[in-house]
């Protein structure tokens, strides 16, 4: 059992040796990659060693059980503990998304529902910012297109975590948030007190560490400049500072107008484009791989309705996992970890099942 883990133990030792070499840090991209992989393997190695030690302790306690009741009691405790450690190790061995340890760029877009959808998009953006704060992550507003009554027609934020552990990564948690979020409540614009249904879309992309990670040919880009619209500085509506970049091979389009200069907007747009291309490349890889890599709760279908926020009943419901709770007031203030945990649990179960089928 777990014989294949020794290969990972050896890889971990090699990575630790490389990270001890100061020359490695001359290439920050390589250092980050090694640090991320090392952090992922450290949990596996630590749990594997605990499992091995528990097996050895059980064997020793069983041999002494007839001579000393304390050893017999220890043996019984270890018989209970070993399967728990083994299950944890089994879950750690599930192939991870290689982007889990990365930071993320998150977008919210008001959907059906007009002004109310924009207000809801603003609520979602604040929810994610507060969640990030609770995790000790930093947020940066990249772009925002505000609506007349408040809220956002669309907005993008970068979320930066701390450390290299993929299990604690920003993208590892927030990747499950992508999809359509539906809200049911009485809009501020409703004079009759009727409940309306509207929606907002959330998209989450892994942040690229270094521009060189994603190779983009200049000939593959179509760049348009135009005048910004909406609130802003003196240059808004007076100069062609807004930028729209189209990546011709994939059809991905990124527009940016928040900054006052065309160069700043172009840099911001390229930052977002790289993240979208990284996600796109991973989608292609996952589509070619076996079902063991397929996620049951993280669809690439941007139109999938994933969650309903019912304000009159104070109810939150995730349609992928069946999670339901009556604490929407807390959720909208950033308490979304239980929702994310339900997605992680369902995802792990589906991946374990797929791995089990592959072994038969």
Automatic annotation (TrEMBL):
Keyword Cell wall biogenesis/degradation: no
Keywords, in A-Z order: Cytoplasm, Methylation, Protein biosynthesis
Main location: cytoplasm
Cellular component per GO, a single term: cytoplasm
N5-methylglutamine modification, residue list: 234
Protein location: Cytoplasm
Tagged with keyword tRNA-binding: no
A Gene Ontology molecular function term of the record: translation release factor activity, codon specific
Post-translational modification: Methylated by PrmC. Methylation increases the termination efficiency of RF1.
Domain Prokaryotic-type class I peptide chain release factors: from-to ranges: 227-243
HAMAP family: Rel_fac_1
Family: Belongs to the prokaryotic/mitochondrial release factor family.
Function: Peptide chain release factor 1 directs the termination of translation in response to the peptide chain termination codons UAG and UAA.
Name listed for the protein in its UniProt record: Peptide chain release factor 1
Gene: prfA
């Amino acid at each position: 059992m777990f014989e294949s883990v020794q290969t990972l133990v050896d890889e971990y030792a090699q990575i630790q040796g490389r990270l001890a070499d100061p020359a490695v840090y001359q290439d920050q991209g390589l250092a980050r990659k090694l640090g991320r992989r090392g952090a992922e393997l450290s949990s596996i190695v630590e749990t594997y060693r605990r499992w091995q030690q528990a097996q050895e302790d059980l064997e020793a306690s069983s041999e002494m059980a007839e001579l000393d009741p304390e050893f017999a009691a220890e043996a019984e405790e270890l018989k209970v503990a070993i399967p728990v450690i083994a299950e944890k190790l089994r879950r750690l061995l599930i192939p991870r998304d290689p982007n889990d340890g990365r930071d993320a760029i998150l977008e919210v877009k008001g959907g059906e529902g007009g002004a109310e959808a924009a207000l809801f998009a603003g609520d979602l953006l604040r929810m994610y910012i507060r969640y990030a704060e609770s995790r000790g992550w930093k947020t940066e507003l990249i772009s925002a297109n505000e609506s007349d009554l408040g809220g956002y027609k669309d907005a993008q934020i970068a979320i930066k975590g701390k450390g290299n552990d993929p299990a604690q990564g920003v993208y590892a948690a927030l990747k499950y948030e992508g999809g359509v979020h539906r809200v049911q409540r009485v809009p501020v614009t409703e004079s009759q007190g009727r409940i309306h249904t509207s929606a907002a879309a959330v998209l989450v992309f892994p942040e690229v560490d270094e521009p060189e990670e994603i190779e983009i040919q200049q000939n593959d880009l179509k760049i348009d400049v135009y005048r910004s619209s909406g609130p802003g500085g003196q240059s808004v509506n007076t100069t062609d500072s807004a930028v729209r970049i189209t990546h011709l091979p994939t059809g991905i389009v990124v527009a940016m107008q928040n900054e006052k200069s065309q160069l700043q907007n172009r840099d911001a747009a390229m930052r977002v484009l790289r993240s979208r291309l990284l996600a796109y490349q991973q989608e292609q890889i996952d589509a070619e791989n076996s079902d063991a890599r397929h996620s049951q709760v993280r669809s690439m279908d941007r139109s999938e309705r994933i969650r309903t926020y019912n304000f009159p009943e104070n109810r939150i419901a995730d349609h992928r996992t069946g999670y339901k709770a009556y604490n929407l007031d807390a959720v909208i203030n950033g308490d979304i970890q239980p929702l994310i945990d339900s997605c992680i649990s369902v995802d792990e179960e589906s991946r374990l099942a797929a791995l089990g089928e592959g072994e038969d």
